[in-house]
Design brief:
This protein has helices spanning 12-16, 38-45, 48-51, 58-62, 70-75, 79-85, 102-119, 127-151, 183-200, 213-226, 230-243, 289-293, 301-304, 332-345, 349-360, 377-391, 398-407, 438-444; strands at 4-5, 66-67, 164-167, 178-182, 268-270, 273-275, 286-287, 306-308, 314-316, 325-327, 330-331, 414-418, 421-425. The chain is mostly helical and 451 residues long. It has a single domain, classed as Serine Threonine Protein Phosphatase 5, Tetratricopeptide repeat (Alpha Horseshoe). The strands form six sheets. A three-stranded antiparallel beta sheet has the order 1-4-3. The chain is globular.
Length: 451
């Protein structure tokens, strides 16, 4: 058991009201925002700007799908952006209530408040109450998953009981002692929350910014994929797609529009956004040249996903959401790719390629797509992983993929050059578990990730 610490780590209710300066050492006034009814609880979860609008971006900043010019790198306004980009062993957050640790735990606090309130309700059979409980469990699990992907090491079944996971805050008492759980405990809880959520949630939510049963199935599929449990990943991806199979035909999109893929299109199962922080904004990030060239000319994504810069480099348009945010939620294209990959890994090559071809024919110019074939599962898997990277570009998933694929022996080494100096990140480097915020370490005593 890891050492227990007192963690004064979240000014969550105050943050919900956008009112606190320090997320580590100021305690919220719980009387301000405690829901007293199902309607109050739903309103708390419907706070879109808080619940849906701040998915972690640090993994994307640290990933390899883009690069920065020397001038752009030096002009970044915050030192922590430069340190994330170059995989430094530690870094100073510019704003201690504006980072990838704070935002997910703010959602966790909201969810715990909702779950505690709903547990006291007299009528536990109320459909709306169950729906709200399911939403809270889903949002908490999603936050825990995102935190684990960033701040915990890649999941290794042989060491998971010893590897440090994240803090599993399961109540709204900010004075309660906190413990950094093991990686196994972390993912066991994520899976438990998602399975409970799936049993409580409706198939069709009122809107896609609310959780649903297909969203819970989709998150379970993504979680099991990360855990290398491919049969389960395939089963939950299939459960999701049985309920929400829709794909968007890119031939119907306006290629001249600034952001061609509209918000909340038919593929979106659960909508959430991650801020396009300075390094990954479409005015600064240059897409990796080899990655751009990997799109065929008849692949509509080559036109819809990218725009040409004045220096002849390419930027990602921000296809799903545009502007200052990137899509970080759950969509059916990702779920088809999970099912395809899991099928290939479990020897179901024909089924894997059926899913891949079903997706790609919607991405290519009508009449130009030639269905992909493969002689064996290894070849199929290589193709599927390449298409996963191309389809899910700038969706907050590359860091997750780098961690899990390197653990399987992919041997992906990352390199970046700034001012003639070469920075490298070796496969399975300890720095794949990003450093916890320094204020958190200094004020709470939580253990830092090994470097």
């Amino acid at each position: 058991m890891l050492k227990t610490y007192q963690l004064l780590f979240i000014c969550a209710l105050g943050a919900i009201a956008s009112g606190c300066n320090k997320y580590l050492d100021e305690k919220p006034d719980a009387k301000l925002q405690v829901p007293s009814s199902v309607a109050d609880a739903q309103a708390l979860l419907d706070n879109y700007s808080v619940i849906n609008n701040n998915d972690p971006s640090g993994g994307e900043v640290s990933s390899d799908d883009y690069y920065l010019t020397d001038a752009t790198f030096m002009a970044l306004s915050q030192e922590n952006y430069r340190r994330l980009y170059t995989w430094q062993k530690d870094f100073v957050y510019a704003n201690d209530n504006n980072n990838d640790w704070f935002y997910p735990y703010r959602n966790v606090f909201s969810c715990n408040t909702v779950l505690e309130t709903m547990a006291k309700a007299a009528d536990q059979t109320n459909t709306d109450l169950k729906n709200v409980q399911g939403q809270a469990l889903f949002i908490r699990a999603k936050a825990f998953f995102q935190l684990a992907v960033l701040f915990a090491p890649a999941y290794d079944e042989s060491t998971a009981t010893r590897d440090a996971g994240i803090v599993l805050r399961l109540n709204s008492d900010f004075n309660a002692p906190s413990v950094r759980s093991s990686n196994k405990e972390t993912f066991d809880k994520i899976i438990s929350d998602l399975k409970q959520a799936a049993a409580l949630l409706p198939v069709k939510p009122l809107a896609v910014y609310r959780a649903s049963r297909p969203a819970a199935y989709g998150m379970l599929a993504s979680t099991y994929l990360y855990l290398h449990q491919f049969a389960k990943a395939r089963a939950y991806a299939d459960s999701c797609l049985q309920l929400t199979p829709e794909l968007l035909d890119f031939n119907t999109l306006n290629t001249t529009a600034t952001y061609p893929v509209i918000k909340t299109n038919v593929e979106v199962v659960f909508e959430s956004l991650m801020p396009a922080l300075q390094p990954i904004s479409n005015t600064r990030a240059r897409i990796d040249t080899n990655l751009y060239r990997s799109y065929a000319n008849d692949d509509l994504r080559k036109t819809l996903f990218f725009k040409l810069n004045a220096d002849k480099s390419f930027a990602f348009r921000g296809s799903y959401e545009g502007g200052s945010s990137l899509f970080g939620g759950i969509a059916t294209d990702e779920i088809y790719l999970i099912r395809a990959e899991a099928s290939a890994r479990t020897g179901q090559v024909n089924e894997a390629l059926d899913d891949l071809n079903l997706l790609l024919v919607k991405r290519w110019v009508t009449g130009k797509y030639v269905p992909i074939t493969a002689p064996d599962k290894d070849t199929a898997l290589k193709i599927i992983l390449a298409e996963r990277r191309k389809e899910l570009l700038m969706r907050g998933l590359r860091w997750l993929d780098l961690k899990r694929l390197n653990q399987e022996g992919a041997n992906i080494m990352l390199t970046k050059s700034i001012g003639g100096k070469l920075y490298t990140l070796q496969p399975n480097d300890l720095r794949y578990a990003i450093a916890l915020p320094e204020d958190l370490i200094n004020l709470s005593g939580l253990q830092q990730n090994p470097r």
